[in-house]
Write a structure and sequence with these properties.
Layout: H1 22-49, H2 55-74, H3 82-88, H4 94-103, H5 107-110, H6 115-136, H7 142-156, H8 167-180, H9 190-213
Helix pairs in contact: 1-2, 1-4, 2-6, 6-7, 6-9, 7-8, 8-9
Length: 215
């Protein structure tokens, strides 16, 4: 009598792996992460346009996605761009392209009454989050850290009305001096990583306190 149920798979058949090494697995993970961020941004932008999320919810989530995108994009390498990545995987996400590659800040801040100041603040917040996330992900190479800290310093100096020896700028510039004395392929050690994160966290708190005094 023939069984009506399918027989078990032949256990002798070999499985097919997407990767053969840790490096290849990391490569696929990075690309999957970038794909997910772009898609999430597209859906968030649609939800905001349809008034399905509040301004506060949209701004918080959009800032997170922009920061995550900067890290994920840097993992693509020098031989591939986000545009070519999206074309390769047939990603039709015009809203995400506009937000991540063109505007770089949430729409809710671009359209606020105090537009210029809001843009500067939003950019600075995103740069803080990105720099701290890079450390959390243990991307400790000098040539990875340096561009993020430069972006952060450049946005901090655009904050109007700050004192000449303002703490957040001083802390970031001290680390820029240290990293500039190192070679591009050098890595900071665990102690430096923890100290840099602590300094950035402290600078971020001081930055937020300053903003509260200006409201």
């Amino acid at each position: 009598m023939t069984s009506r149920w399918p027989t078990a798979l032949d256990q002798s058949l070999s499985t097919i792996d997407l990767y053969e090494s840790h490096t290849e697995r990391k490569h696929y993970d990075n690309r999957a992460n970038l794909y997910a961020i772009i898609m999430a941004t597209e859906h968030l932008e649609r939800a905001y346009a349809q008034d399905c999320v509040t301004n506060a919810e949209y701004t918080t989530e959009c800032n997170k996605l922009i920061s995550q995108f900067k890290i994920a994009e840097s993992a693509l390498g020098k031989n591939e761009s986000t545009e070519s990545f999206m074309k390769k995987y047939q990603m039709d996400c015009p809203r995400a392209v506009n937000r991540l590659l063109i505007m770089g800040v949430p729409e809710s801040l671009r359209s606020s009454d105090d537009g210029d100041r809001a843009l500067t603040v939003a950019t600075t917040v995103a740069n803080f989050i990105t720099a701290m996330d890079v450390l959390k992900l243990e991307q400790l190479d000098v040539d990875v850290l340096l561009p993020h800290l430069i972006d952060l310093r450049n946005s901090l100096v655009q904050i109007s009305g700050t004192p000449k020896d303002w703490g957040p700028i001083q802390k970031v510039e001290n680390w820029l001096v240290k990293l500039n004395f190192m070679r591009a392929h050098d890595r900071i050690d665990e102690n430096d990583s923890r100290q840099l994160y602590l300094d950035l966290d402290s600078a971020y708190s001081e930055f937020n306190q300053y903003l509260k005094t200006k409201r």
